[in-house]
Automatic annotation (TrEMBL):
Classification via SMART domains: Piwi
InterPro entries for the chain: Piwi, RNaseH-like_sf, RNaseH_sf
Name of this protein: Piwi domain-containing protein
GO molecular function: nucleic acid binding
Matches recorded under Pfam families: Piwi
Chain ranges of the Piwi domain: 130-288
């Protein structure tokens, strides 16, 4: 059995800057990363009182590809490969991953025959939270024309994953799409001149007048813009089976924006989405490096074409099996390796 070894790279130049230039913030960031990679948690954000019903620490909410570790506030994840330039996810792989996430939470007897390491880790998890009644899905990067695809195809794949884990498991779903790919910018008027305007204060939410009437939509800016005009995240609620109201949802998303762990300020994107971006970059870089140094080992399959000879193309599911951290589907992710 292969066990991954997590490392933290710190350059000698960075060490010299920390010591000679007294860069305490850099030192704190490095220590925070090391703590996360050693199964630690640097802090736990507090949700507003209006959102306590869906607080992560209750164990009632599973944020897809996020809180599957022993602490509900520790976010980890993985990636899988599919054909490029496709916003639609591979439904089969998505269903498999949902079952895998739920197995990470549970302590089912029928899973104890996998191997000793899996048994040990599973027993340390959150067996009391293994079937959360609510599953929140935060989707990023979709245009309005793809909303129907997310509701029908992707949500259905997640339903299938839940049924494959346990046919009697019937969670309720919340599907949200958040994006920065819009052209709306908000600012505060401090006078008659445009030069007197200022960015929105952190924690600002806009859910009236400028939002759509045909669906639940709002804009949220949890972070402090470091440069230029801040851009609020546009959120659209596509499915709400949990009967969450706007105050509860906004409080929940705001608390997720403070869950970065390496820095203790809010990020514009929520922590699960931020981690998804980092994992996608990690997966892309790993594939590029693998193809460069081991080109002959890249899995391939035949693709039949009408009235033509079949061609060889990359077998992305084989690449997932080879390069993703979940391996053959039995690997347990217990800490964040992208810190």
């Amino acid at each position: 059995m292969f066990k991954p070894i997590v490392t933290q790279h710190v350059t000698l130049e960075k060490v010299r800057d920390i010591v000679n230039k007294n860069q305490r913030q850099t030192l704190e960031n490095v220590l925070n990363k090391m703590n996360m990679k050693n199964f630690g948690l640097n802090y736990q954000p507090q949700i507003e009182d209006c959102g306590k019903r869906f607080a992560l620490e209750t164990g009632k909410v599973l944020v897809i590809c996020a809180n599957m570790t022993d602490n509900p506030h520790a976010f980890v994840g993985d990636y899988f490969y599919q054909e490029s330039r496709r916003e639609a996810l591979d439904m089969r792989q998505l269903a498999d991953r949902v079952s895998w996430i739920l197995r990470n939470l549970g302590n089912d007897e029928n899973e104890k025959s996998i191997n000793f390491f899996v048994d040990w880790v599973v027993e340390q998890r959150r067996p009391e939270h293994r079937r959360p009644p609510f599953i929140f899905i935060i989707r990023d990067g979709l245009s309005e024309g793809q909303f129907a695809m997310a509701c029908k195809e992707e949500l259905e794949a997640i339903h299938i994953g839940c049924k494959e884990y346990d046919p009697g498991y019937r969670p309720r779903f919340l599907l949200i799409v958040g994006t920065k790919r819009h052209f709306k910018k908000f600012f505060i008027e401090n006078g008659p001149r445009l030069t007197n305007s200022a960015n929105l204060p952190p924690g600002s939410v806009i859910d009236q007048q400028v939002v759509r009437a045909d669906l639940t939509e709002f804009y949220m800016q949890p972070h402090v813009p470091l440069k230029g005009t801040g851009k609020a995240i546009e959120y659209a609620v596509l499915e709400n089976e949990v009967d969450i109201n706007m105050d509860e949802l906004q409080a929940f998303l705001m608390s997720l924006s403070y869950s970065h762990q390496i820095v203790n300020i809010a990020t514009s994107l929520t922590a699960p989405v931020y981690q998804a971006h980092e994992l996608a970059k990690r997966g892309k870089n790993n594939f590029i490096a693998f193809r460069k140094f081991y080109r002959d080992a890249v899995p391939e399959r035949e693709l039949s074409l009408p009235a033509q000879q079949p061609i060889r193309i990359v077998d992305y599911r084989g690449v997932t099996h080879l390069l993703a951290y979940w391996g053959n589907g039995t690997t347990i992710l217990s800490h964040r390796f992208t810190a």
